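User: My collaborator sent over this chain with a note saying "see what the structure looks like." That's all I know about it. Can you take a look?
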Amino acid sequence: MIFTAEEQGERLDAFLARVAPDMSRSGAQRLIEQGNVLRNGKKPKKNDRLEVGDEISVTIPEPVPTDIIPREMPLEIVYEDDDVLVINKPKGLVVHPAAGHLDDTLVNGLMYAMGDNLSGINGELRPGIVHRIDKDTSGLLAVAKNDYAHTMLASQLKDHSMARTYEAIVCGSFREDSGTVDAPIGRHPTDRKKMCINERSGRRAVTHWEVVKRYPGYTHVRCKLETGRTHQIRVHMASIGHPILGDTVYGHKKKELGQDSQCLHAGALCFRHPRDGRPVMVYAPLPDYFREVIEKLEKR
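Assistant: Without extra context I'll predict from the sequence alone. Here is the result:
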């Protein structure tokens, strides 16, 4: 891949994370350190400041063989073709292996079901994974079967043309029927496991929300992501005084209505097919835990 710098003084790693499909800043830094990035034909440093017109060439190395253990598990596949499949992930399932979850993740299940028929450009521990959702968030997740599909879907994430809509039960009542939270999100300065609104170093994050139904003390809302930052909806809803029901990290610390994890469901996913550009629209109904909460609220 070849890119041309159009802004003066931007850091090289930040530039790559902004313009390259499916590349994080840490991923850009790794590529630079491995010698896979050239600036005007020479090896740069990750903190190099660019000048307008600099030519940046990036070589993506071939994926290395993975040691992930395939594991048979039930997977609810709601859409599949030769390039893409969409999974309806249950609450409680971790997406990709990490400390404490090495053989019981969605990736382990995908490896068992799909074998080598998954893209490899997102790293050895995340074959096929185009984007992710939190362990305790349920709903739709796109998976790429090959690198071409992965690159095309990742570009839609980057230009915000992939539409992702979530259902949530949040605490409190809204005066308005809809609104937008436009506030940058970055890593929490003291708790590295959390995100927060960070005006200085956060990345732009935009969440559009609308009221579905009001209940005493709670509201069913529908949130549409314009961007896709880590914990975005959870952080944004908490920032306006309406944390998600059950979210003990960003909201109330005690269990409410039987929920001790966020009541958040990725219910709709719309994208252009990577091969022919046709619109693909996939929907997942509210899961049992979410409907049980609504039943409790209806009786209040």
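A starting point for your reply to your collaborator: The chain has a mean pLDDT of 89.
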